Protein: Regulator of protease activity HflC, stomatin/prohibitin superfamily
Amino acid sequence: MGSAAAVIGLVVVVVLVVLLASLSVRLVQQYQRGIVFRFGRVLERIRQPGLHLIVPIADRMVRVSMQTTVIGVPAQGAITRDNVTLTVDAVVYYRVVDPVKALVNVRDYPSAVLQVAQTALRSVIGKADLDTVLGDRERINAELKSVIDAPTEKPWGLLIERVEVKDVALPEGMKRSMSRQAEAERERRARVIAADGEYQASRRLADASRAMADTPGAYQLRLLQTVVDVAAEKNSTLVMPFPVELLRFFDEFANGTRQQPAPAAGQPVTPVPTPQGVPAGDGHRGHPETRH
Structure:
């Protein structure tokens, strides 16, 4: 009987030790911090990762994750500053920097961050115009981060690391208007590029014309090159080049005839010499009669 009682007593002691150990030993992971409440009051010392002993019944430990948490903000309907209705959703990245504040100052801080993010998203979109929302996402993201971070960092012990707008849904009518605007812009750019190309080509042609004018034989060489190019296509038309110098000679002769001044009144007219062997006159009369 004595040995049986000793065994039972030993078993009871072991069970009590195990129960006491289970109530006293707490494990904190590397990504966690432990907050101990003793009779409902927070102890100042924050438990770091590892094994920790607490007083059974009197102490209660709450583990807080220090990892970055990602929450998606559901699509929110908002009206921009230029009265365009949009549907915008976003994503928020945050983490706990003060576990005591996150537990004591706010209840269910993930839900609280989500509500603040929804309100901030509508507010920021309402202060911006459509072009800013579509073209300057970095500015919108920075404003969202500052608006969400203001009520959460110091009071709640949370740090908003990043806020990004995921998608912006436009009305169908606005999509069609923007498509027409983009098409008109592309057409305008194409016309500007074509006009610029024609302008540059005309400048090059003018330079080439001046360079060829300085060289008398350049025009003739270019004409011969054109004849070679036409003949290479096996055409039945024969092109005979006309000397450019001959055209220039006739042009200079005509200009000289127009610019010759008329004789003044009272001045003798110098007769034009006639070649030898050709009688004077119009060719239809004989020699003039000699008068005595």
Notes: The beta strands are 25-28, 32-38, 41-42, 50-53, 59-65, 69-79, 85-96, 158-169. The chain is about 50% helix and 20% strand. The chain has a mean pLDDT of 80.
